[in-house]
């Protein structure tokens, strides 16, 4: 397992799969170990997939200062990994909360980003998070599924702040609540750093007007990929996110939830791979 030293001396780990041009991948959660990403359905075919374990997660060390878990401060870790790998520019992929980290990195270091992929990003960095109404509307698309009757009231309670996040909510995050999804979800508790997650988006983490202004000038091509059944972001929010960038395309994966590479690995891998190869919307 390769490691490098971050700006404050914290030892950080990353995981490499495949051969070829590097694709640097930032996990979501926030602050979930990168193992949940697996091989992202195979878009690393012909590429070297490099998954970063953010500080305090996975195989990376816990920092001395918990304030360094804040999203804007993690940008320095991403940049340190780029320099460690000896890359002048990177193809960068951020999933979910990692999409906000990827956007902050691109805003601060636009000259270092060759292509940017945002997979089901909840765009906190832009000041446009998914709303409870977004999540409920997406959830209602699942009303014909056998688990819906028990899960939907629990979702409403959680979004109102009158209930906890309970296991019954998990199916809403997957396009298919099959064995693969259930096994993926079962590993979640051991992959999170809850303390770090509470700091990730804390006060000062985001400056949406400045980030929007910087990203409106980003020269790199951008792909925003949403799941048809996802509520955070739903396809409409994904399109609004794409509108921030001057060179963006938006793809909506049919029948997919928040982890689209699990719902249809072939569709996801081909779409992301096509973008990384410069084939665009074709």
Can you describe this structure?
The chain has 282 residues and is of the alpha/beta class. It has one domain: Rossmann fold. Helices cover 35% and strands 17% of the residues. It has helices at residues 71-85, 97-108, 132-140, 148-160, 179-186, 188-191, 194-200, 208-215, 235-242, 260-263, 265-276, and strands at 3-5, 11-17, 21-26, 47-52, 90-95, 113-119, 222-227, 248-253. Strands 1-2-4-3-5-6-7-8 form an eight-stranded mixed beta sheet, sandwiched between helices. Helix 3 packs antiparallel against helix 4 (148-160). The model has no long low-confidence stretch (mean pLDDT 96).
Low-pLDDT parts are none
The percent range for strand residues is: 15-25%
Mean pLDDT score: 96
Number of H- or I-type helical stretches: 11
Secondary structure class reads: alpha/beta
Radius of gyration: 18 Å
The first-to-last residue Cα distance is 37 Å
Task: State the strand order across the main sheet.
Answer: 1-2-4-3-5-6-7-8
């Amino acid at each position: 397992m390769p490691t490098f030293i971050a700006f404050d001396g914290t030892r950080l780990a990353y995981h490499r799969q495949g051969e070829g041009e590097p694709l640097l991948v930032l996990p979501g959660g926030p602050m979930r170990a990168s193992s949940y990403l697996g091989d992202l359905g195979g878009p690393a075919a012909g590429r070297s997939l490099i998954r970063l374990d953010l500080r305090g997660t996975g195989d990376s060390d816990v920092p001395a200062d918990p304030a360094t878990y804040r999203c804007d401060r993690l940008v320095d870790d991403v940049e340190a990994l780029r320099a460690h790998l000896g890359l002048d520019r990177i193809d960068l992929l951020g999933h979910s909360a990692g999409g906000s980290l990827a956007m902050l990195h691109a805003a601060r270091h636009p000259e270092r980003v060759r292509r940017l992929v945002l997979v089901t990003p909840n765009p906190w960095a832009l000041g446009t998070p998914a709303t409870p109404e977004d999540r409920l509307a997406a959830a209602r698309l699942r009303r014909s599924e056998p688990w819906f009757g028990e899960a939907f009231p629990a979702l409403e309670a959680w979004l109102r702040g009158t209930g906890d996040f309970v296991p019954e909510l998990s199916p809403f995050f997957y396009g298919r609540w099959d064995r693969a999804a259930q096994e993926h979800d079962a590993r979640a508790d051991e992959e999170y750093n809850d303390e770090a997650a509470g700091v990730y988006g804390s006060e000062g983490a985001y400056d949406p007007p400045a980030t929007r202004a910087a990203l409106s000038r980003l020269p790199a091509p951008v792909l925003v990929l949403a799941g048809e059944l996802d509520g955070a972001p739903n396809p409409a929010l994904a399109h609004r996110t794409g509108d921030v960038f001057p060179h963006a395309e938006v793809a909506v994966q049919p029948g997919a939830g928040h982890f689209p590479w699990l719902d249809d690995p072939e569709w996801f891998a081909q779409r992301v791979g096509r973008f990384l190869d410069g084939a665009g919307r074709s």
